[in-house]
Amino acid sequence: MPSALLVLVVLVFFPLVHGRHVRNTESNGISVLGEFNHEAFPRFAEPIPNVTVTVGRDALLACVVDNLRAFKVAWVRVDTQTILSIHHNVITQNPRISLSYNDHRSWFLHIRNVQESDRGWYMCQVNTDPMRSRQGYLQVVVPPSIVDRETSSDMVVLESTNVSLTCKATGYPEPYVMWRREDGEDIRYNGENVNVVDGEVLFITKVSRLHMAVYLCIASNGVPPSISKRVQLKVQFPPMLSIPNQLEGAYIGQDVTLECRTEAFPTSINYWTTERGDMIISGDKYEAVSMDNGYKKYMMLKIRRVNKSDFGSYKCVAKNSLGETDGVIKLEEIPAPTTLKTTTQFPSLPTKKKGKTRAGDRFGRGEANNRVNSPPHFDDAGMSEYDDDGEFTLSSNGSPPIQEPPGAFSGATRTENFNWCIGGVLAMTWIFSKTLR
Predict the structure, then answer these.
(1) pLDDT of res. 27
(2) Which of 111, 218, 343, 359 holds its CA 20 to 30 A away from the CA of 58?
(3) Does residue 88 contact residue 96 with C-beta atoms inside 8 Å?
């Protein structure tokens, strides 16, 4: 039955013209052989363009024929020699294939939900003799995908062992695969720090804690979207410990902080003990704080209001399933800081020294009592000055002479009158005080 159908299709499609000559029958019934006019043959107006489409989308192949007249157009799948359509009829049993046309000139082959199996050459034929045809290629591209069953999942390994991470991807064209860290840090690979490792396999020799991270397997082939998979690598190792300051000093009444840093995976259990081995619990006296950053841990012990009994050794301890370690910090007493008292000394006013004043000293030596002195002359040697100790003192040359008006009392007379005045004031003050009592 299929062979009979093919014969029927061929009989319907192929032309009745079998050669380069045709027999024309004139009105008188006499048949005349003549040359066939090649310009009357159908011709393709343009080549069939190659089409690239992503799997799952729709494809459209166009065939444009001029001067088709009574000839017929057919679409054929070249690699399988499958006839898809003849003129206005779809022959294939594939439900995803359909046909459209307009103006008896443009013929369109539609393929819905394109699959990879649709990739190949397609031919547009015109049933002339000889047959005329054009071909176009349907390229079906497939975005990358990662094959989970062939790709590494999260891994836990011991430090210093070798580890291999594998990522298998498919797609068309064949995907390009690379590895990088999710945090953007470089990968220590073959003795070098690199940002990206090409290839499906990431092989690390003597893995260390520095390799512990989330890795991204990224596959791309130019067909969007690219795809990635996260693979977490965990590296196990026993605790390690470091102490910034093994000797701390504090004075009585001071608050002091002890620090300790550890690294471990699996995560360690960390705590502090006293010199006697007692575990320290946070409370009024102590405050134990622990902060995690990946496999690193920061330990801090704050001791409030240090007293004599607090001096001694303190131990920070870290334990996990692979081992344990500890470190000792010694707290010693130091003298309390002394408060320095600072005073500011201001300059004092000049004070009159006790003793008698000689007229000759005040008014010039060997001169007359009633003589008017010339105006005093000040110079740097006779000016008041500050000593180095901040006290205000007079110049060593004595005070400048006092100018007196003409007819003034002599130095001796003025001294006697001054003494009488002082005595009177003192007497009046004593009488007044007696009256008040």
Answers:
(1) 35
(2) 218
(3) no
